[in-house]
Structure formats: structure tokens, C-alpha cells
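User: Design a sequence. Structure:
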């Protein structure tokens, strides 16, 4: 409770501002106010975490409302209509035809065998149908997650990718249950745009070798181009022709969605199915040529057929006759144990918000769903997965009505694994590279860079810092650099509040009014003191009272409270008094807990400076 002023009905002697400025007057005022406020409660109440958790458990965790919130299928399934089935079926089939070639391609990006991309593409569809809250989101392998996995598993085998999926799921689920999704809010739009653009450039660069039929395994930006220039003389003509032609066809087919008239529906679905169609076309071409004894293209090769076994993720493994324990595997995964969950959350929630169409997105539920998708996915040899913007857009454009569309997508992937795996042998690598490169064209966020420059030019710095760092240092370190640069901007703003000041004459007294424009934390404390003392010294001897207007200050910490006390003492050395005017109660209590005798008589409230001066002149009780 904030100390209050004496009641206006009390008869009080007049104490003028010159008297108030004198040491004797200050002591008299302090003693007077301390007498009135000695019994005021300014203690800081600590939250009772045990009682809070128990109350939440009793009132929410087991209620019907909470169960439906955590199992969204219980909300949409009872109202499911018959006509929804056909729309969900069509959307699921369309997404399935998209995820099969993408899954195979992203497995290659991750440095894994092609079947692991399909292993990663079905479990998330089934789980999200139960726990997901956005009908459009599809969970599965993505380009960025695959690239980040590749850095750690390219030379260590699939066991590390599978364990990574399990750990990502555990971290994401834990963050969701603890409501810590706000952590991704520290990744700003410029940093996200720079990261996404750098990832797209890196992924596309890593596929140039396959597009040209060159040898090499590099997927990092610099290493990829070094490999290309080193082996450019080994370029395979027909792989290059096929790859470039596939990119042109894919870009042309994208425009079919703009057809009008009677061809509108056909153009829409041809555009949505373009990835599957070019992969099927390339596979048929390679198969027919192989039947004639010709093999002009590098092929994907053998893909293990059949469904993956359901078993726990590997907590130990053997690579090149070296046994890795669980702790050693986690050590090898390094910073990706933290980076991958954050990227997964960022992608998935951003996609859910993009397709929410004005509805509120429960970020906690999305994190819980994503965490369970990764945990259960690791039991079927999945690599880390998250929401895919491309496939979610296909899902939305196909007219999906409920998350049940994901069940159809998962079934399509399972059928492909069981019946079509042998045909994947003939998929040309150049076609898969073309599918990835064509997709990356639209992930480089040129429009975001233009928006940033138009809106706030200084924000282009974290964008460029993230982009360049990701390209040169890798995605994880680049993301940290971008966040660090952005946080420097935030810290600078909090440490350099704008301080407005003016000298105003009230009742024959000149007042220096100093107003910081934001809350004050430790980094801004000395800056505030420097300016207050400097402004006071420059104001002249005719100014005897400094008014610190705290109307815009909602928070201070212990460092600021200590500095405010030192400001009072330093102004006394200048024979000036100070008054804290219109500070919020919580701020007053923080200062009073440091030194109640000093601060209690200095806090005043009032709508105008006239009222403040009247209080100082007429309402200080002896």
C-alpha cells in the first residue's frame, strides 16, 4: 500500500519552498511524514507458487474445458459434417503428393537416405489431427530443419537425427507445458527474415552440385560454391539440361493457378501438384531410358521399402567402430539441442498465425502438439519436423475443412512407403535438386527487406547481420549473432530514455521539471542521474526545486532506487530540493523499501503543478 498524504481537513502549518529546501526543513518534513506513514504496508509480496499451482490444477487441469482445449479433436469432431469428408480427402491427397517428393529431397538435404524423409512425413500428420488447433498446418520435414540437422548428422548416421527429433520434442513439449513460448518473441521479424533468406540461399547452393551432376557432399554456403568451382569441369550435360528444364517447368506451372474461366479448377490443381508431376515425369523418363540401356542421369538409387519399425529412439549407437553413449550423442548434437526447438516453434506458430484468419492461436497448444509429433516421430525413425509453410499453403488452397485432412496425407505417405519405394530408385537427382531450388526462390524474403527499409531503416542492420552471419558462420551461430545485434538495440533504448525538461514558474517559484519517457532499469540509472544533475546545475540559482515527473514510469529496480536516493543527496549539495511527482504506487513502494524515511515525504500526486506547490506550501504537517 502506498504512503498517502495527510488528510486535507487536518490543520497544518505553512512550510514554504525555501524552508523546504533547507536541511532543517527537510528533516522536519521527513519526520512529519514518517509519523503519518510509519504503519503503511510497503512490503513486497512474493507469489505463493505452491498455492497457485494447486489452484490451477484444481480449477483447470482436470476440467472439461481444459481437456477439450488440450485435445482439440474433441471440439471439431462432434460437429464434423459429411460434406467435409470429400474436401478433407482431396486436400489430404494433394498435400500427400507434395510431401512425397519434398520428403525425399529434404532427406537428401539432411544427409540421410531418401526413405528417412518419408519416415518423417506421416507421424506428424496423425498426431496433429489429434492435438493441433489449426486446420491448415501440416507437420513434416522442412528445408530449414533438414539443413540444420545435416550439420550434425552428415558424417554420423541417422541415429543422431532420430535422437535429435526426440530431444526436440521433449524440449518443445516442456516449453509448452511451462508456457515459455514467449521466448521466440525475442526473435524479431528482421532476424527471422534474415535467417530464412540465408537458409534458402544455403539450401539452394547445396543443391547446385546435384543440378549439374557434380561430385561432393558439401551443404554449407561457402563449401558448396567452392565445391562447384573446383569440379565445374565435371559438369554432366544431361543432368544440367534436365535440372534447368525442371526448374523452368515448375515456375511455369506455378502460374497455372492464375488461369480463369473453365480452366481455373484444372490450373489450380495442376499448380498444386507440380512437384509430384515433375518427379513422376523425370522418373518415367529415366526408367524408359534405362530400359533402352541408357543412363544419362544420376539416380537416387535404392530406397528401403516397407514401413519403419516402431521402437524407441537410439540412446546409444556405433559409428565407424566407435560407440557413442547418450551423453556423447547429445554432446555431438551440441547447440542444435536448443536451436532446433526454437526454430521449430518459430516456424510452426508463425504458420498457424498466418492461416488463423483472425482467430486466436493457442501457442501453448501448438507447442504441445509439435512436441508430441517429434517425440512419437522419433519412434518411427523420423528426423526433427515442424510446420511446413509450403504444404500448409497447399492444404489451405485445396479447401481443407478440418485437421482430419492430415490423416489422408499420412496414409498416402504410408502407401508410398509400402508400395512405391522401388520406383524411387529411378528419380533423377537433378529433378530433386530442381524441386528444392525452385522452392527456395520464394523463401528468400526480398519483400521483407524492402518492408524493413521502408518502415525502419535501422532494422536493416540486424537483418543483414543475420543474413551474412548465417551464410558465413552457419545457421545456428548466425541466428545468435542476429539476436545479439537486435538485443543490443533494445538494451541501448532501455539504457537511454528520452528525458524531457522545462523550467516553469509557479506561485513565484521557478521549478525544473524533468520527465523520463519510459520505465527505468539499472542500465538507465546513471544516465538519468547525469542528466538530472547536469540540468539542475545549468538551470541557475533561482531554481530551488527539481520535480521528477514519473507519470510515464511504471517500473524501477533496486539500482534505480539507489540512484534516485543519490540524486536527492547530490541536489541537496546544490541547495536544491527534489520532489517525485505522480509516480505509480508500485514504483513508490520499491523506493520506500530502500529508504522509507528519505522517500516517503518526497512522493506527491496531483493533476497540476499548482496543486503540487500548494501541497508543499500548505500540507506538510509538523
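Assistant: Done.
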Amino acid at each position: 500500500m502506498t504512503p498517502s498524504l495527510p488528510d486535507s481537513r487536518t490543520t497544518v502549518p505553512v512550510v514554504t519552498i525555501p524552508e523546504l529546501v533547507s536541511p532543517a526543513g527537510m528533516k522536519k518534513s521527513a519526520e512529519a511524514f514518517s509519523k503519518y506513514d510509519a504503519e503503511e504496508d510497503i512490503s513486497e509480496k512474493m507469489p505463493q507458487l505452491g498455492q497457485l499451482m494447486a489452484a490451477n490444477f484444481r480449477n483447470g487441469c482436470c476440467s472439461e474445458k481444459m481437456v477439450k482445449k488440450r485435445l482439440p479433436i474433441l471440439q471439431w469432431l462432434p460437429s464434423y459434417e459429411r460434406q467435409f469428408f470429400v474436401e478433407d480427402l482431396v486436400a489430404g491427397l494433394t498435400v500427400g503428393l507434395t510431401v512425397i517428393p519434398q520428403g525425399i529431397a529434404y532427406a537428401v538435404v539432411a544427409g540421410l537416405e531418401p526413405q528417412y524423409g518419408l519416415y518423417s512425413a506421416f507421424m506428424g500428420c496423425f498426431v496433429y489431427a489429434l492435438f493441433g488447433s489449426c486446420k491448415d498446418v501440416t507437420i513434416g520435414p522442412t528445408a530449414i530443419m533438414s539443413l540444420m540437422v545435416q550439420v550434425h548428422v552428415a558424417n554420423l548416421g541417422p541415429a543422431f537425427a532420430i535422437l535429435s527429433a526426440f530431444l526436440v520434442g521433449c524440449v518443445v513439449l516442456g516449453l509448452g507445458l511451462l508456457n515459455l513460448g514467449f521466448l521466440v518473441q525475442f526473435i524479431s521479424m528482421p532476424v527471422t527474415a534474415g535467417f530464412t533468406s540465408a537458409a534458402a540461399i544455403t539450401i539452394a547452393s547445396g543443391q547446385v552440385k546435384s543440378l549439374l551432376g557434380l561430385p561432393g557432399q558439401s551443404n554449407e554456403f561457402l563449401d558448396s560454391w567452392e565445391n562447384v568451382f573446383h569440379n565445374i569441369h565435371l559438369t554432366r550435360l544431361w543432368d544440367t539440361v534436365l535440372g534447368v528444364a525442371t526448374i523452368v517447368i515448375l515456375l511455369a506451372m506455378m502460374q497455372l493457378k492464375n488461369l480463369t474461366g473453365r480452366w481455373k479448377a484444372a490450373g489450380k490443381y495442376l499448380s498444386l501438384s507440380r512437384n509430384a508431376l515433375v518427379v513422376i515425369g523425370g522418373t518415367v523418363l529415366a526408367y524408359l531410358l534405362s530400359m533402352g540401356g541408357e543412363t544419362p542421369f544420376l539416380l537416387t538409387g535404392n530406397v528401403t521399402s516397407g514401413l519403419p519399425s516402431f521402437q524407441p529412439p537410439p540412446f546409444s549407437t556405433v559409428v565407424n567402430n566407435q560407440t557413442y553413449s547418450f551423453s556423447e550423442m547429445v554432446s555431438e548434437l551440441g547447440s542444435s539441442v536448443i536451436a532446433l526447438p526454437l526454430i521449430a516453434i518459430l516456424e510452426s506458430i508463425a504458420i498457424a498465425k498466418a492461416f488463423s484468419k483472425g482467430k486466436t492461436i493457442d501457442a501453448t497448444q501448438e507447442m504441445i502438439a509439435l512436441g508430441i509429433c517429434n517425440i512419437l516421430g522419433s519412434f518411427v525413425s523420423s528426423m526433427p519436423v515442424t510446420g511446413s509453410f509450403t504444404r500448409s499453403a497447399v492444404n489451405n488452397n485445396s479447401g481443407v475443412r478440418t485437421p482430419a485432412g492430415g490423416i489422408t496425407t499420412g496414409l498416402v505417405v504410408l502407401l508410398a512407403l509400402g508400395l512405391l519405394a522401388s520406383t524411387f530408385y529411378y528419380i533423377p537427382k537433378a529433378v530433386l535438386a530442381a524441386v528444392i531450388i525452385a522452392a527456395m526462390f520464394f523463401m528468400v524474403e526480398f519483400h521483407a527487406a524492402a518492408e524493413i527499409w521502408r518502415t525502419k531503416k535501422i532494422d536493416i542492420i540486424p537483418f543483414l547481420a543475420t543474413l551474412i552471419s548465417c551464410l558465413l558462420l552457419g545457421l545456428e551461430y548466425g541466428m545468435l549473432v542476429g539476436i545479439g545485434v537486435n538485443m543490443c538495440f533494445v538494451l541501448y533504448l532501455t539504457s537511454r530514455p528520452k528525458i524531457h525538461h522545462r523550467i516553469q514558474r509557479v506561485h513565484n517559484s521557478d521549478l525544473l521539471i524533468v520527465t523520463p519517457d519510459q520505465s527505468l532499469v539499472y542500465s538507465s540509472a546513471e544516465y538519468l542521474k547525469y542528466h538530472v544533475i547536469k540540468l539542475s546545475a545549468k538551470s541557475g540559482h533561482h531554481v530551488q526545486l527539481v520535480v521528477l515527473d514519473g507519470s510515464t514510469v511504471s517500473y524501477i529496480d533496486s539500482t534505480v532506487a539507489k540512484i534516485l536516493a543519490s540524486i536527492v543527496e547530490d541536489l541537496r549539495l546544490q541547495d536544491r530540493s527534489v520532489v517525485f511527482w505522480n509516480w505509480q504506487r508500485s514504483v513508490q513502494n520499491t523506493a520506500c523499501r530502500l529508504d522509507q524515511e528519505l522517500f516517503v515525504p518526497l512522493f506527491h500526486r496531483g493533476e497540476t503543478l499548482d496543486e503540487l506547490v500548494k501541497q508543499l506550501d500548505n500540507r506538510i504537517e509538523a
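Residues 1-16, 32-39 have pLDDT under 50 and may be disordered. Residues 76 and 402 are 7 Å apart (CA to CA).
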